[in-house]
Amino acid sequence: MNSSPSYTDKASDAAMSRRSFLRGCAAFGGVSALAASLAPLRELGDYTNTEQFLQKYYKELTPSDMTKVIARIEGEVERQYGIRPHVRDLKPMDGVEFVYALNLTRCIGCRKCVHACVKENNQSGSPEIQYIRVLKMPHGSMDVEKGNHNYDDKQVPEKGFFYMPIQCQQCKNPPCVKVCPVNATWQEKDGITVIDYDWCIGCRYCEAACPYWARRFNFTKPDIPKERLNPDMAYLGNRPRKQGVMEKCHFCIQRTRVGKYPACLEVCPVGARKFGNILDPESEISYILREKRVFIQLKEEMGTSPRFFYYFDK
Amino acid sequence: MISALHNYFVFLKRCGRVALIGDWRYYAWMGALTVVCLFGLNAYAKQLVNGLIITGMSDEVSWGVYIANFTFLVGVAAAAVMMVIPVYIYDNKELHDLVIFGELLAVAAIIMCLAFVTVDLGRPDRFWHLIPGIGQMNFPSSMLSWDVLVLNGYLILNVHICGYLLYSKYQNKSPAKWFYIPFVFLAIAWAVSIHTVTAFLYVGLGGRPFWNASIVGPRFLASAFTAGPAIIILALQIIRKFTTYTVTNKAILTLRSIVQVSMIINVFLLACEVFKEFYSGTTHSASAKYLFIGLHGHYALVPWIWTAITFNLIAMGILVLPVSRSLRWLDVACVLSIVGIWIEKGMGLVIPGFIPTPLGAIVDYAPTLNETLVCLGIWAFGLLCYTIFLRMSVPILQGRLSKLNEGLPEVQSNDSTGKSLI
Asked: Which residues in chain A have Cβ-Cβ distances shorter than 8 Å to B208?
């Protein structure tokens, strides 16, 4: 132990001033190094702002809050893309539960649905985000591991194969909703599982939980070509997303909640896609699920109970 | 009240000052760690700006080394109980004065865990959405919300236990049993819970057959109780080398028997898993095939897992033989166990769970340089924290930093024996 040093002698004074000089240098060096290491943050740009940072959870927004939020979003989109969008907060309709059915006998694997979806839902072009994945499957198997994701044939369909488009199955027991730590994704009354893009923290737990690989993450700032922007937007639907949040198929909420068909259905050249209200016994979808002898819920053993059915004509 | 606060403030200030003094080796070590931290911080700043695209992760493999390190470190934190149990339940005298170093290690490990989770978030600015009351915590449904609660709870428990014991020692008072013993026992149960909950994060996902197995929880605990005490064995020897603190060989050998038994259980559970995956040969074994033998021409993880298995088997061999009573061999076994288990929990558990994807696609994953720098930065920060904790606690425990010598110059970096004191 060092005991009772005398601070009065000159040598000690000199040592002290040298020490404090060195300390000063160290502190200055440290602060400069810290600043240098943080330098990339200068390019954060419009990562967030106070309004966005403090924005409340979707279910806690009052109508007047929502008006303000929508105005903010419209302003942001206009500044970025030069087009004033029309953003709506569309609510589920009473007495409606949406169900999708896909006729595997008809599907020819042309991927028109994939691209119509990208356009309708303002998905990023670079890096490419697509909600629908079409698998080219050998005849006689429903094992997705036998499917080819990246087929690049000049002409489809190829003999000996069938094509299986897979998108969000809008499960009745959605594992993604169960695992979200912040309730940023939930199932609406009409059966659509939606995401509050302004609430998602980007942990990607839902992406790990989904048995259908239906969820997509914005690994960087999405890039939507200006000429492709769809200005008809819904808050829980196709408004542009931010870097670092999840997105996925929402049955084209901006269309289906105002009585239109999803974009993937409208574009299908062979009429393989059917969509409608299962609670209405007169709807086409009710007829299909009642009359078709074979229909499949993908990975039924998961207990997720999808609202998306695959069926065959013969 | 005011004077109590003042005393506590003086205590903190003196601890802080002690952390800033040491010999040249201390400065070199701390300086090097700081440099690595800054590189990590710089890499993280780039990630914040550009997004997680500058990692190796993708929609196919959506968690990578961040979550792998997180998982490993939760185990390290949990393993502190393997020192606490012998001391407080079996009244082991040798370990008694060392148990606090295990608890401090737990604190440092949890700090690293929280950092690893934070850097994995796409929107770290929205962390407050997780805070109960002002945010929306999906409790009890989401296992991630459980994890947030148990990890922070464990951090608070250990900070309380260590902080209280050290402050009591500083004041030369004997600690009031009621104010820490109940927390020690709570922390024992809590330690098991942090690693179980972390295992359940994976186990709960029905769409990922590789994780959706009840053996994952027990394997997590077995591997944690191997790697954690192995780290403590190394840490205690470092403390002994660089300080005048007494660490007996007997204490280290007590930990050896813990590592020994845990490693045997760990290897046994691994064998159980390998048998189940490969003998039944269902389509659900695809991830295991990818990991152990490669799948459809993809072999990215095969060298990793066989390295891990080889290390673990060699470590087990050394540990069960009497040679590991010699510290040199024990250290070899500890290093092999730590590396083996790190690979097993990281490359061997998190990554293959994603491959193939639920739709059968095989996309390989490898961390990028930027991602690796972030990881190294966090590890350096954790080591920095642990070193500071030791730098403060050793002189307090030895009575060299106490209320009695308040006002006298701070403890110096060298004592009369010439041994440096970190």
From this structure: 208
Would you say residue B6 lies in a domain?
A: no
Looking at per-residue confidence, does A145 or B313 come out higher? B313
Residue B208 sits at the chain A interface (C-beta within 8 Å): yes
According to the model, what pLDDT value does residue A5 have? 47
Give the domain extent around A109: 98-311
If residue B236 lies in a helix (H) or strand (E), which one and from where to where? helix B216-242
Nearest residue in B to A248, CA atom: B59
Q: Is B5 a member of any domain?
A: no
For residue A239, being part of any structural domain is answered with: yes
**Mean pLDDT over the full length of chain B:** 92
Q: Which domain holds residue B260?
A: 29-401
The pLDDT value recorded for residue B170 is: 94
Identity at B222, one-letter amino acid code: A
Core vs surface per residue B157-185: b (16+ CB within 10 A) or e: bbbebbeebbbbbbeeeebeeeebeebbe
CB contact set of B229 (below 8 Å; sequence gap of 6+): B79, B82, B83, B255, B258, B259, B262
CA distance A265 to chain B (A): 22
- Counted across chains A and B, CB pairs separated by less than 8 A come out at 190
pLDDT > 50? residue A83: yes
pLDDT score recorded for residue B413: 47
Q: Three-class SS of residue A134?
A: strand
Alpha carbons B148 and A181: distance in angstroms, whole number: 9
Percent of chain A with pLDDT over 90: 80
Residue A59 within any structural domain of the chain: no
In DSSP terms, which residues pair with A99 in a beta bridge? A276
Tell me the two tokens of residue A195: 């995401």
Residue B46 in domain:
yes
The Cα-based distances of A228 to A75, A223, A263, B159, B309 in angstroms read: 18, 11, 14, 55, 52
Helix axes B369-397, B99-120, angle to 10 degrees: 150
Q: What is the three-class DSSP state of B137?
A: coil
Cis peptide before A306 (omega within 30 of 0): no
Return the pLDDT at A26: 83
Surface of B (58-77) touching A: CB under 8 A: 58-60, 62-63
Q: How many structural domains is chain A composed of? A: 1
In degrees, to the nearest 5, what angle opens at C-alpha B408 toward C-alphas B406 and B414? Answer: 115
Pairwise CB contact (< 8 Å): A204 & B122: yes
User: Which CATH number is A212's domain given?
Assistant: 3.30.70.20
Which of B356, B357, B409 has its CB closest to that of A5? B409
Q: Is residue A63 part of a domain?
A: no
**What's the farthest any 2 CA atoms get from each other in chain B?**
72
Chain A residues within an 8 Å CB radius of B205: 175, 179, 208-209
CATH number for the domain spanning B171: value is: 1.20.1630.10
Interface test with B, best of A22, A54, A219 (most B CBs within 10 A): A219
Among candidates A36, A183, A211 on the partner chain, residue whose Cβ is nearest the Cβ of B136: A183
Q: pLDDT digit string (tens) for B324-339?
A: 999 999 999 999 999 9
Structural domain tally of chain B? 1
| Torsion on CA atoms B69, B71, B72, B75, rounded to nearest 10 | 150
Q: Residue A17's pLDDT is what?
A: 82
A47 and B125 within 8 Å at the Cβ level: the answer is: yes
Domain assignment present for A301: yes
**pLDDT given at position B281:** 83
